[in-house]
Amino acid sequence: MSGPVAFLTxxxxxxxxxxxxxxxxxxxxxxxxxxSLSPELYNSATRTxxxxxxxxxxWQILPGFTLFAxxxxxxxxxxxxxxxxxxxxxxYALEVSMRLLVxxxxxxxxxxxxxxxxxxxxxxxxxxxxxxxxIDALEAAGVDTMRLEFVPRVIGGVISVLALTAVSGAVAxxxxxxxxxxxxxxxxxDFTRVMAKVFEGPIMxxxxxxxxxxxLAVTAIPxxxxxxxxxxxxMAPISVLRGMVRLFFAxxxxxxxxxxxxxx
Length: 264
What we know:
Number of helices: 9
Number of strands: 0
Mean pLDDT: 87
Order of helices and strands: HHHHHHHHH
Distance between the termini: 46 Å
Number of domains: 1
C-alpha cells in the first residue's frame, strides 16, 4: 500500500502547490491593477520603467510584427474570400474574415508574440534578482519593489499588448477592404456598415477585456514565477520553462472562456 499512498501524496502535494501558485498569481494581478489605478504610482522612476518596457516589448518588434500580421492576414483573408465565393457566400466573406482575424486570432497571436519576446526575459530577470537576493536587499533599503520594479513592467506589458493588437487589427481591416472591394473609395460606406455589425459595443468591450487579460497574463505570470524561484542558480531556467508553460495554458484558457461567453 505504500506505493499508491506515496503516489497520491505526491500528486496531492503537486496539486496544492499548483493551486498556491495560481492563487498568488491572481493576488499579484489584483494588486498590480489596484496600484496602476493610483496616481501616486506615476513618478519619474516608474514612468521610465514603463517606457523601457514598452520600448523593448512593442516598439523594437513593431516592423517585424506588422509585416508578420500583414502576411498572416492577407493569406487568411484570401482563403476566406475564395472559399466564400466558391460556395456563393461572398457577401459574408468580409464579416467572417474580420470575426476570425480581429476578434480571435490576432489578439491571441499578439499575446504569444509578446510572451516569446518579453515574458521569458521578465521571468529570468526576476528569478535572478531573487536568487542573488537583490529583491531582499532593495526592500531592506526601503525600496517598494512592487511599486518600482514589478507594477511598471505589468503596465508596460499591458500597454504593449493593447497597442500591438490595435496595429494588427488596423492592418487586417485595410487588407480586408482591398481584398473584398479593391482600391476604390466609393465602397467605403458599405464597408463601414459591415464593420458596425461586426464590432458592436458588447463585442468591442469583450475584445478589450480579453486583450487586457492577455496583457496581465504575459506580465503577471512571469513575475510571480520568478518570485517563487528557489534560491539556486540552476533553478532559473526551470523557472522560466515552468512560467512559459503556465502562461501558454493561461492564454488558451482566456481564449476558450472568451469564445464560450461569446458564442454559447
